[in-house]
């Protein structure tokens, strides 16, 4: 797509609080002639183990994204001016049948992925990372997964069920969807079921930068470890908003004390913009527990940084052609 991209509604003509709630007030995918980055919602939370409500995450993050502006000084880049970013609406996922929902998400993401360069997903609980990785694997092969989360999400089953929001990366690893030499969790903390969890996790192909490590050694050291592990592999970034401390993101289903600040998370993402990001999600925003849109705003800014990084990756690919 080399036409001039269609941007958001002009905030000097249409108030930011008026009009359709698309991500950042960008056009809908059906209103533009070709999209590079599709922002899609997955209002699904049948996989949760504790507080429900992430099904309302996509609409909350969109509503919290109305104040985003075109130029991102932290990356010195104007993503939606460089490439066409559009809102693809929501993927319909069966709320009563998790296996059907997973299939619907995988199929819809594969179809959307065939007509755009990159997908940025707004969840939804973390279950959806599993079918999203199925879709990205079909397009790009095994990807390095950089997973920002308080939790490992490599547990085996809950109530003997294999597909839940605590198990997506175990299923993905078992299915060969991820690069086991290049995947990593960032921001993990809090109680586990047992020491075995960490052994299983390592065997499934993940290494760890814990929340404590970030506090102890700082962002540059954390970034160096991430960059060393991911290298130039195609990279999928999955951000569970509960990676943030509950003080920064109370609106989520399984909060854990001692997390990253939103400033730290944004800095970490900004330190990865030259990597080969092929897809990303921001999940686990549950607005019923949010206050003053603080979780929604944090998630919308995370999505904005990811969108800017993806736009830069697309521009680099074009320049290399
Ligand atoms: N993916 C998220 N947010 N949470 C997983 C927690 C699973 C548990 O209750 O042990
Ligand atoms: Zn989590
Ligand atoms: Zn998670």
TrEMBL record:
Keywords: Hydrolase, Manganese, Metal-binding. GO terms for biological process: putrescine biosynthetic process from arginine, via agmatine. One of its GO terms (molecular function) is agmatinase activity. CDD domains: Agmatinase_PAH (cd11592). The keyword Manganese applies. PROSITE patterns: ARGINASE_1, ARGINASE_2. The keyword Aminoacyl-tRNA synthetase does not apply. InterPro entries: Agmatinase-rel (IPR005925), Ureohydrolase (IPR006035), Ureohydrolase_dom_sf (IPR023696), Ureohydrolase_Mn_BS (IPR020855). SUPFAM superfamilies: Arginase/deacetylase. Its EC number is 3.5.3.11. Its cofactor is Mn(2+). Mn(2+) 1 binds at residues 149, 151, 153, 240, 242. Mn(2+) 2 binds at residue 126. It comes from the Bacteria. Binds 2 manganese ions per subunit. Belongs to the arginase family. Agmatinase subfamily. NCBIfam families: agmatinase, PRK02190.1. PANTHER family: ARGINASE/AGMATINASE, GUANIDINO ACID HYDROLASE, MITOCHONDRIAL. This is Agmatinase.
């Amino acid at each position: 797509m080399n036409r001039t991209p269609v941007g958001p509604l002009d905030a000097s003509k249409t108030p930011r609080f008026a009009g359709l709630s698309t991500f950042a007030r960008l056009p809908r995918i059906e209103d533009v002639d070709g999209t590079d980055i599709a922002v899609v919602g997955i209002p699904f939370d049948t996989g949760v183990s504790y507080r429900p409500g992430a099904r309302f995450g996509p609409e909350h993050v969109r509503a919290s994204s109305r104040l985003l502006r075109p130029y991102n000084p932290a990356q010195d880049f104007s993503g939606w001016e460089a490439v066409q970013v559009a809102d693809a609406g929501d993927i319909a996922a069966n709320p009563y049948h998790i296996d059907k929902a997973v299939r619907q998400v995988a199929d819809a993401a594969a179809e959307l992925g065939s007509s755009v360069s990159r997908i940025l997903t707004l969840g939804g609980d973390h279950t959806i990372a599993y079918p999203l990785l199925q879709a990205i694997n079909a397009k790009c092969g095994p990807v390095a997964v950089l997973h920002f989360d308080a939790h490992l999400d490599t547990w085996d089953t809950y109530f003997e069920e294999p597909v839940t929001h605590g198990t997506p990366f175990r299923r993905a690893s078992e299915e060969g969807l991820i690069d086991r030499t290049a995947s990593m969790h960032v921001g993990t903390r809090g109680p586990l079921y047992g020491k075995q969890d960490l052994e299983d996790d390592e065997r499934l192909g993940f290494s760890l930068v814990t929340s404590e490590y970030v506090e102890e050694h700082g962002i540059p050291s954390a970034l160096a470890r991430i960059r060393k592990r991911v290298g130039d592999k195609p990279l999928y970034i999955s951000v569970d908003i509960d990676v943030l401390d509950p003080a920064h993101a109370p609106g989520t289903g399984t909060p854990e004390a001692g997390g990253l600040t939103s400033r730290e998370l944004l800095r970490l993402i900004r330190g990865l913009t030259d990597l080969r990001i092929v897809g990303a999600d921001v999940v686990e925003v549950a607005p019923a527990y949010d206050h003053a849109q603080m979780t929604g705003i944090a998630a919308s800014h995370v999505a904005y940084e990811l969108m800017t990084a993806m736009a830069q990756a697309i521009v680099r690919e074009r320049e290399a052609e």
